[in-house]
Amino acid sequence: MRLFYALTFPQSTLKKLSAVQDELQMRMDTGKRTPEKNLHLTLSFLGEQDPSTLSTLKAILDELPSANLLVHFTHLGVFDKPDGAILWAALAQSQPLSVLQRTLVQALKREHIGEVDPRFTAHVTLYRRSRIERVEQQLDISSPAECVALMHSHQVDGVLTYSPIKRKFLQ
Predict the structure, then answer these.
(1) Predicted confidence (pLDDT) per residue in 2-21, tens digit
(2) How many whole angstroms separate alpha carbon 126 and alpha carbon 72?
(3) pLDDT for 64-97, tens place per residue?
(4) Beta strands in 10-137 (DSSP E)
């Protein structure tokens, strides 16, 4: 199973990010848009995992802090790739978000699960394989985080789908 931990947002925030995607699409030569229902912040990508790890992964989710978490999207960023750039919405530095992500990574290391990438850039991917002239745009979107979820990335009728296996709602 292809798994990851994600921070999810309320529908109102997803709508605002979708509006940013609409603006970008008008300026873009090409790009694969992230569907609104798939917009999230990846806290840790686990890759292919044996289903036998699910009970441990769910237990790790239960260990995570569950305090309110407010995030602020500040600008657009770009990861350049040979097949086209990844365009993303950047989040401002946040001590609570950093603590959440570090706690998760430490628990995964303790359980020897996955190849945990120590680099973490808090972002939400808006487009993949994009070709766009310039991306300099400030954002001013504040949002509560909705939950931390253990997600399954899979195809449903040929469509990439992120299905929550377990969620931990934030207070």
Answers:
(1) 999 999 999 999 999 999 99
(2) 16
(3) 988 899 999 999 998 888 888 899 999 999 999 9
(4) 28-33, 41-48, 70-79, 85-91, 123-132
Amino acid at the residue 157: D
pTM: 0.92
Copy the structure tokens of residue 38. Answer: 């798939």
DSSP 83: T
71 is written with which tokens? 């995030």
Residue tagged 């040929």 (tokens): 158
Q: How far apart are CA 46 and CA 99, in angstroms?
A: 19
Sign of CA dihedral 23, 26, 27, 31: positive
Considering the chain, what is the average pLDDT of its residues?
A: 92
> Which 8-state DSSP code applies to residue 114?
S
Helix, strand, coil percent content, the chain, rounded in steps of 5: 30, 45, 25
